[in-house]
Amino acid sequence: MMTSHILTYLVYTYLRVAFANDIFEKCNNTRPFNSTIGTCLRQSTVAKCLNDNFSTYEDVKRCQNNRCIKCSNLGLSCIPDKYILKSPFLDEKACGLDLSQNLIDALPDYAFKDTSNLSFLYIRVLYLNENRLRWISSHTFDGLSHLEYLNLTENCLEWKDSFQTGVFMPLEAIEVINFKRNKFFDFIDLDNEFHYMTNLSQLYINPYNASGNFTLGPGFRRLTKLLRISFSGLSQNDCSVNTITQNMFTNTLNVLELSLRECNITDIDEQALLPLNNTVADLDLSYNKELSFTGMNKALKGLRYSQALKRLRANMIYSNLELGIEFKEEHLENIKTLQNIETLNIDLNKIEIFNKKVFEPESQWPTSLKNLTLAGNRLTAGKYMNSVFMAEHIIRLDISRQHLDYDPFANYGRMDKQTSLYNRHNIMYTNISNHEFLELNLNTIDWWSVFKTSPTTFSLTCECDNMLSKKVMCLPKQIETIKWRQSFIYSAIPPAVICGASQLKHLYMSFNLFHTWQGPVLGLSNLELLDLSDNYCKNLTKYFFLGFPNLLVLNISGNMLGRSFNPFKNDDAHDLFANLQHIRTIDMSSLKIVDLSQSLFRDMTYLEKLNLSNNYITTWTTDLRSPCLYHLDVSGNKLSTLPENLTTYLENLTRSACNKGRNVTLVLGNNPLVCSCKQLPFWKWLNVGKVQVHGKSTDFCTLNGNPFPLSSMADYRRVLLALKDICKDRYWVSWVIGASSGMFGILMTICVTIALYKNRWKLRYMYYNRKRRHTHQGFECLFSNDAMISYAKDRASFIKNKVVPALENIHQLKLWVADRDSMPGASVAENIVHAIYSSRKTVLLVDEKYLNSSWCVYDLNMARQESVESNRNLIIVVMMERIPSMKLPLNIMRMLRNEIVLEYPENEQYLDAFWTNLALEINK
Ligand SMILES: *[C@@H]1O[C@H](CO)[C@@H](O)[C@H](O)[C@H]1NC(C)=O
Ligand SMILES: *[C@@H]1O[C@H](CO)[C@@H](O)[C@H](O)[C@H]1NC(C)=O
Ligand SMILES: *[C@@H]1O[C@H](CO)[C@@H](O)[C@H](O)[C@H]1NC(C)=O
Ligand SMILES: *[C@@H]1O[C@H](CO)[C@@H](O)[C@H](O)[C@H]1NC(C)=O
Ligand SMILES: *[C@@H]1O[C@H](CO)[C@@H](O)[C@H](O)[C@H]1NC(C)=O
Ligand SMILES: *[C@@H]1O[C@H](CO)[C@@H](O)[C@H](O)[C@H]1NC(C)=O
Ligand SMILES: *[C@@H]1O[C@H](CO)[C@@H](O)[C@H](O)[C@H]1NC(C)=O
């Protein structure tokens, strides 16, 4: 694990560095260059451009009419002097022009004056990014008095050589100008050129010289609308300035947003940000890996007691190669004075531990702070955890991605040693004294009977204090959201008490390793959203959700809960969602669910969305009761059809009062739907129902042995028509079976009975196999088993100890064995037919007992029927003992003549050869 992290990091770093070195390589221009006009004269270039509405561009709002021209990536080396459009503008007035990703290296005077067919007078948006510009003439932008947005990123411009004097003078309306990824070695005289742009509100520019003079000169005082300055580049190394000096921002007094992100800054002068004290609301110091918390604190000196600053970003201000950090109270020295700070991001800083003084005796976090993110640090357990609850104003906390090996519930081990003192059940009431329940062993309470007698006892509230916080997990009392994802927490969730979290509404704990969810967890009774997805959980008890009676959204997808939810394997499967009666949305996708209890969702009368996609459900067995459901996802299962009770329920939902104004949708794609007569009602419903059914374009069903596409409603209709046609005959068969006992008089009955008796195996076979019919040629790979083994009941241990080890382990065959592989719930008859049908061969282990067992004879006859119907040689008879031929029934005699017959050797030494032969026959 560790090595892969390091590797990823190294590769990533290498790529970034390699990429960064490339940025200016395109600027090595070997063509002769005339510094007045660039490399070519204007009057030779004709560009075939596209009409575009710039809808993919960020600044589309500036050009709402469709008068935009896109000439990007045409290999142009000059500004065109004629633009050819597919559909010319009637009024000839362009609003946007995109010349990005060309080879233009110079902008001559009057580059955007009107051409013969277009007027650029009203142009508002101009893209020149990703060219090779190294020269802009004085009068280049003349006439562009309405230009609001200019993108010059990724060119070869150098300050100040590439800019002739007065070039920005015409841009009186410009609001956004972007110079990222050009070479500004300093900002000397920048103000003398920029001060004309009095409407400028956003300036993007990268200082590109670790020790340059980047003071924004007095001319900037005229840019009173300048609200955002961003020095950050598009990637690492674009911005480089080691020190932010005292005077840098003395002339930009209205800036609200300042980004100094990823600039290799090592030092920010104490006074540097002082001029922004009254305005700057959003400050980004992230990714200056040498800055450190000490440097951050120094920088904030100028903003002490600021009422303006609302958000401070200081992610990754330590190098990844450094030792872990102890976060100390002095790091908050200036932050704690900030009057209105709401969000603080200190992610990726290698914080290992907090000094206790950060929380105690008084919390050092500013009281206005509501959002705190500490993601991607390395927090480890420490004494500070007992006082975290002191940071009581924090509302949203993100401590994801810690990669720590720490069990948050380890604390509760202490309660196990325990002597249970008080009346167990009393203690659950809300007014318990805080210390009382600590004496209890939470593990030994009979939670189910507590719940049965009084479900409300699961809402526990308790106040944190210094004593209590040493014993149970205590959270800040206003906390509403906690994200604690991707931290590799390997633990069970035992019965637990969490104090102070009565406001907690959203809890995200996905991508950890909570392997067993035992619960209940008390103290989170107001929780509305719980995300426990992707935890590799294998074990869920019926107590787990008892403590979350107000849950609205639950995501448990990506766990391994198939067994817990399977009513045949877990007696508690019916009650797993007890106490979730308010739930609105459940995501149970990818849980490896095979079967669901019928009553699992019985109490959920508000359920709106249920996702059961990507499980192994073959038959829909569960009941939904909510009248408000409007989204059901069962895609990616193994459903061959949906039963009528479900389709009726869904159809009723479209008329339900809660669903007024919204569509009811069923996502059905990626299921092996069967198109056969038994499913006719289902296909009718798909065609006439009001529920919106979403399939996948790759869906198909098998109809008459051929794949039939199911990619649209029209396909559904075609299936229906085809089925109606085919099923006329089939009706007859079922009618024959159904009608044999009457109605048509005795004569008819006798005739039919005789016919039925004669054909009884064929009819039974057809009856059970009715939904699985297909012809077998070319479908060999579809069999899920190599062989079905048919044997007399008393041979079970022989099968287990001899046959399975010999054929499965040594010869690598996949067997179907009734005692092991029967589908629960299906009848014996259905199981047998299914087994024969899905196995390439059927091996009959015949002895006298076998011949006397009715199910064995059933196996035998069904196998014969399948062999005839599908025209395959599938029967292999193994005579387990010598049976006198007079004892053999006639049909067996006949079969022994036609089918492959092996004899089980009496002598041990021939056993190996026998198994090899049998395996060969099966593989044939
Ligand atoms: C571009 O020029 C720089 C020096 O200015 C040189 O180091 C680099 O190798 C050149 N790149 C190419 C592709 O010529
Ligand atoms: C550059 O082009 C201008 C205009 O065509 C011309 O007058 C001047 O001589 C050229 N300069 C060079 C160095 O070629
Ligand atoms: C300008 O062009 C660059 C690409 O060079 C692009 O990343 C950026 O989003 C564009 N717009 C703005 C507002 O910077
Ligand atoms: C940086 O340039 C400004 C004028 O743009 C000047 O006032 C200042 O003294 C310079 N600083 C240094 C350290 O040279
Ligand atoms: C960052 O600044 C240091 C000097 O403080 C310099 O040695 C280093 O090369 C710079 N790194 C980058 C990527 O510019
Ligand atoms: C910042 O401004 C506030 C008023 O908004 C003022 O109280 C405080 O002293 C100023 N901070 C500094 C460092 O001047
Ligand atoms: C806190 O973060 C949330 C979600 O990231 C955001 O929606 C909200 O605006 C932030 N609140 C404040 C007060 O900054």
From TrEMBL:
- Domain named TIR is located at 783-922
Q: What is this protein called?
A: TIR domain-containing protein
Source superkingdom: Eukaryota
Pfam families hit by this protein: LRR_8, TIR_2
Instruction: List, alphabetically, the InterPro entries matched.
Output: Leu-rich_rpt (IPR001611), Leu-rich_rpt_typical-subtyp (IPR003591), LRR_dom_sf (IPR032675), TIR_dom (IPR000157), Toll_tir_struct_dom_sf (IPR035897)
Signal peptide residues on this chain, from the entry's feature table: 1-20
Task: Give the principal location in a single coarse category.
Answer: membrane
Keyword field = Glycoprotein, Leucine-rich repeat, Membrane, Receptor, Repeat, Signal, Transmembrane, Transmembrane helix
Q: How does it sit in the membrane?
A: Single-pass membrane protein
Location of this chain's protein in the cell:
Membrane
Gene Ontology terms: biological process: signal transduction
The cellular component terms of Gene Ontology attached to this UniProt record, alphabetical and capped at eight, are: plasma membrane
Phylogenetic placement of the source organism: Eukaryota, Metazoa, Spiralia, Lophotrochozoa, Mollusca
The organism of origin for this protein: Dreissena polymorpha (Zebra mussel)
